[in-house]
Amino acid sequence: MTKKSKMILPGMTRRQIVKAGLAASVVAAAPGYMRTAGAATPIKIGIPTVITGGYAVLGSHVMRTAKLVKKMKDASGGVLGRPIEFLFKDTQGKPADCVRKCQELVERDDCRIFTGVVVSSEARAIMPKLDEWNSFFISHGNGDGRLTAELLVPNFFRANTSAPMGARTLALFLKNAEQNDFYAIGSDYAWGHSSVGAFETQIQNVGKNFAGKVFAPVGNKDYSTYITKIMQSNAQGCYVALQGDEGRAFYSQAQQYGLASRVTMVTEIVAQANIRALGKDSVGLTGSSRYPFTYDIPENKAFVQRFTEEYPGELPDWSDGEIMQALDILFTAMEKADSTDAKKIVAAMEDLEVTSVKGATLMRKCDHQGQNQGFVVRVSESPDYSEPIPKILEIYKREDVTPKCNSTEYDT
Amino acid sequence: MDFVGFLLTQSLNAFSQAAILFFIACGLTLIFGIMRIINFAHGSLFMLGAYVGFSTAAATGSFWLALIVAPIVVGAVGMAFEKLFLSRLYIRGDGGAYLMVTFGLAVIMGETIRLIWGPHPHGISTPDMLRGVVILLDQPFPKYRLFLIVFGLLAALGTWQFLERTRAGLLIRAVSQNAEMVQALGTDVQMVRTCVFGFGCAMAALGGVLAAPMVTAFLGMSASVIIDAFVIVIIGGMGSFLGSIIGSLLVAFAQVFGAYYFPNMALAIMYLLMLVILVVRPGGLLGKEE
Amino acid sequence: MNWKTGFVITAFVACLVPLVSPNYMMTVIIEALIFGLFAMSLDLLVGYTRLYSFGHVAAYGLGAYTSALLLLHFNLPLPIAIILAVAISMAIATPIAWVCTRTHGVSFAMLTLAFAQLGYAILYGFKDFTGGSNGLAGIPRPEGPFGLDFFQSKIGYFYMVLFCLLGSYLLCRALVNSPFGAVLAGIRENEPKTAALGYNTRAYKRIVAIAAYGFGALAGALYAPFAGFASPELFFWLISGTVLIMVIVGGSGTLIGPIIGGVFFLMLENQLSEVTSLWPLIFGSIFIAFVMFAPQGIWGLLTARFTKPPVQPGSDRDGEAARAHS
Amino acid sequence: MPILECTGLTRRFGALVAVDAVDMAVEPGEIRAVIGPNGAGKSTLFNVITGVLAPSAGRARFMDETITGLPVEQVAQKGIARTFQLTHLFPELSARDNARIAAQARLPGRMKLIGGASVIAQSVERAEQALDRLHLSRFADVPANMLSHGDQRLLEIAMAVAQAPRLLMLDEPTQGLSIEETDRAVEILREMLADGDLTVILVEHDMEVVFKLAHRITVLHQGRVIADDVPEKVKANDEVQRAYLGGFE
Fold this sequence. Notes:
heterotetramer, C: 326 residues, two-stranded antiparallel sheet, 15 helices, D: 249 residues, alpha/beta, Rossmann fold, 37% helix
């Protein structure tokens, strides 16, 4: 009988079934051989990041800088006198994969320190598990304000500038701007809502008028309707919380509409990857920057120089700077705790102040949020670089930029 | 802005979006018409088009050259793939096989692009003559989008006339009606299939190049576009060329006006539209139920 | 009925897995089993009724979100929550099945896709309820009933999943070998004829669709509490495509094949992505290789040398047999 | 009283009247042939009676129940089994399974989701009897699409028989068969019908076949009944002669 004709009255031999049983057990066992062995002595740091898929660009920044950091640290005697081993795992930006990879890192490699998570829903998925895993997770780029407010868990710290902080920085910057009415467009996910929400309150705090807001679906590609809405609002300013692909799409199309000539746009994150892709169209773009590589302090200069030596033709993006700072803070805390144990690191990191590529940052005890300075930059052309670069317009004090403890709110 | 001006701008927005969607959808539907396969890789070919276009523009500095080179390259890739794999599957004629092969191709293509061009996005800047806006009812509207509308219109008319008037077009329609018959009449159906597949891929590539100045070329662009293309082809009717035009317009208008009036349900509207149409006409507007 | 012996042996072997496999493997193994169950549920439609569903992810996501919401808001005992989730999902699936089964072929595929995408869109529409793109995190695994709590440990959860998988397999097997299943085969082969014989084919299609949703929902309902979260990715249309591939790669219309396909590929992806970032290339190539060289699928390959070639009609009519073929 | 009674049954396709006010009464146990030149409306009549097509006018009563307007499957459930002009089978299933699905169609447990072993056993038994009656037992395990055309025609009849119908409607059972195949098929059919437990309506334009099998003949011409009588009378009927160009040599 053919396969199909068998379907009604399948008569299967014992041997077939046994075969299936064997097959199943083989499948179960096989990966054992493939497993990548990890040395015992080095300090293992898990980097479950996006290697393949849509967000790969952000993952690639994390990896290149992490590799650079390893070189530099190992050269200078490592951490706690031990070499560093980064374990890069591909999560494809999917929470499901992120949780699984972390679980494996914990159980197989006994690796209990994580950073480099790209997507905020990934961060959300693993945070509730940190305690069970007795693991430590320091965010280098997850923006959702609530991660250090209502969603905070003990073994989590955030080194980077959060969405509300970015919005706050811009609000402070716009305080004395001539524009009075502001509209806001954000991406329809956690980070976008967090940013726009914060901007809405902040801009009103500084005595401006908030003209309205709109959220574009994740992965939206045609922004014409939203541009129309912005123009209809008759606001003189527009706050843009769109990242990566969405940000580029918006700015390309806004440029085609000549939107900039009618509305002053300020953006949540100025990213070098976008500047490069947009080319000369990006010139004049103003916004807050989580990390402008042009920040002129010795710690940063050294990093940028080392970085450009290592990766000729590349410039550090915001995520390069943020992962760099996150790792600096992590290592300092380890040295201070003289341990790699999660609990000890947490204790050591509370109220720890570290001066890294973004200047002095204080890891607040009360809500584990890193107090970062706020940078406002404008994209400009420069004789020293082949592509436009962010020129720093203003730097705001970390106390003014960081929200109240366990909150996304500010006093004034 | 006054309501008329608003309607005009929004409609033009929709038309320009429809133009890009059409380039992907018409290839998809023609391919389905001829070989009864749903080409999962179509989005990746669209993406490949954008990247090839970028490289061409970067090398020559000419957007227009990119518009010519990308379709040729991608069309060739498509034809090669059809010859190498799909052509061996027709005798089997089971949908699953096509699904897997094209799905596999989509995965491979996405990865190959990442390896060749890297994970970073690449922009194609709007050609200078298409920069800036024209004022319609004192609303600014981008020249580039007007260009898209015109270009899309010409492409649609051209393809339609080609299918209706030319002998080759007649042949294509004949094959989609009854391949065996055409074969029996001594025409090389396999050749027709290869060409149509290549043509479909070339159209997708065109769409990719045209989209690049508005969204830049990036790794995620395939997944976001293929699903829209599916919806369009289904709404219009699988295999119906005119259907793909109507579908593109419907979807574009649904998205543009939906996003305006129901921003929270922007995603859902397109699928609601698709549901309603499928429930009323299971074969799509101009299609016959398979 | 020697398949029973085989089943027992396989089940026994499976029960030993936690003893032989290192603990860190269990996570991926459990997820693989869940995915295998999901793939098998689709096989009811694809393999036995030749209804290609392009939106089967809806079943998975529905199960995951319902169980997640039940556990988060009502703190029900885990088994109860899962059973309820399946029931609710099937209830929701009923009207969907009713609409989709009016059609067949490509139209069916696309209608299912439309419903799945609608679900995906709705997740974003009702953020307060579904958490939008954040999804729902911190899903508990409350103990009970009768103080049962073995499933709170990972090994325990493995056995619960295994139990569900084996149980579902037996149910599905009984279903496709029942008189009902025979009619499904009829519909698969020639629907008009089946109707002409006196069967109300739509009713049968409706029932099998709801059943497929039920088993798919079970897979989702098992996943959410295990991972501890549910996010829109569980509703993403690409998963529908992937699971369809798993069914075909495993060998559609065999139930066992799709299970193997699902388990095999989830583990393969996980392990490959460990060793190389080129894994998607290898993955895609495997798909194509299977279509080209092993259309019968994994299970087909495994069993090929055991199944006898079809009995040929008497030699006197071989010519006609050939003609009947062409 | 007649088992099937058609009164004024009419089916129009636009201007064309395919079946035109057909009155026909078939008695239990009778073997009725419906003949007529191509396009006379024979198959259309079949399709109207079995619910494949809705009638434009008139009605068909079966066992004192009106069956016009019922969907196909319900007509079948009343006990009317039919074959199609173009063979309709389950190509990849074995002959046994083909017949088995047919046999199961009117068993109470046909919708059993789980188990139903007794239903299966019963239907398998019936299926094998049916195959035996049409001399197909040796092909029981052969997939239908591997059978010769002739055996495929017979298999479809076997399926109809397996349905245990009160009325069996055969649409050109010998269509497309070679002379030898036809003779063989007719032998098998005659033997099968000899038991006399079946009422049969048979569409056929091979006169040989008709006169070998039929008790009574209805002649259709351009949708209308022009004769309804025993074979000998029909043979003699001039109008039939005229309608049938060439007549019966």
